[in-house]
Amino acid sequence: MNTTALDTLRISKELQQANLKPEAADKIAEILQQVRDTDDARLATKADLRQAVAELKTFVLTVVGSSATVIVAVLAAIKYFG
């Protein structure tokens, strides 16, 4: 989340000084604010990252545990039948 404010009034005034009509300048500033808000909403938070790491750890441990079980079973079968 972005903690600094986007100065839409300043943006609009600068666009107007560059000979844009006030309505167009205001609309562009508004759109820039919407884009910024949308981008911020899509960013992962620290909590999101913590949850993803925890899920990944669980997945890796499950895969490693399953693989170890299969290896032990194969080795036991080789010893028994081999």
Give descriptors for this structure.
2 domains, mainly alpha, 82 residues, single chain
State the helix count: 3
Low-confidence stretches: none
What is the H/E string?
Answer: HHH
Share in helix: over 70%
Report strand %. Answer: under 5%
| β-strand number | 0
Number of domains: 2
The helix/strand class is mainly alpha
Cα radius of gyration in angstroms: 28 Å
How many angstroms does the end-to-end distance come to? 62 Å
Overall outline: rod-shaped
Describe this structure in words.
The protein has helices at 8-17, 22-42, 46-81. The protein is mostly helical and 82 residues long. It folds into two domains: 1-43; 45-82. Helix 1 (8-17) runs antiparallel to helix 2. The longest helix has 36 residues, at 46-81. The termini are far apart.
Quick synopsis:
By secondary structure, the chain is an all-alpha fold.
Topology:
Blueprint: H1 8-17, H2 22-42, H3 46-81
